[in-house]
Amino acid sequence: MADEKPGYRLLTGEDTHDFCVRVSDALADGYVLYGSPAATFDPNTNRVLVAQAVVRPEFAKSD
């Protein structure tokens, strides 16, 4: 059971190439995007922080 992939993941981090690779890796691993990405600016660190939810296809809503 520990080897099972979670149905939902929220990927977060700084808006960099590495973050985009993490999202791409999740998609290649069978996850699908869930909802819109979110972004915010942290003035204390002068960085843009982003988040993207991904789910396993069996958890995705079909409208």
Task: Briefly characterize the structure.
This protein has one helix at 17-28, and strands at 8-14, 32-42, 47-55.
Our estimate of the beta-strand percent is 35-45%
What portion of residues is helical?
Answer: 10-25%
Give the topology string: H per helix, E per strand.
Answer: EHEE
Protein structure class: alpha+beta
| Spatial strand sequence of the major β-sheet | 1-3-2
How many E-type strands?
3
Give the topology.
Blueprint: E1 8-14, H1 17-28, E2 32-42, E3 47-55
Antiparallel strand pairs: 1-3, 2-3
Any overview of this molecule?
- With 63 residues, this protein is α+β, with helices and mostly antiparallel strands.
- Helices cover 19% and strands 43% of the residues.
- It has one helix at residues 17-28; strands spanning 8-14, 32-42, 47-55.
- Strands 1-3-2 form a 3-stranded antiparallel β-sheet, with helices on one face.
Question: Which key phrases capture this entry?
Answer:
alpha+beta, elongated, single chain, 19% helix
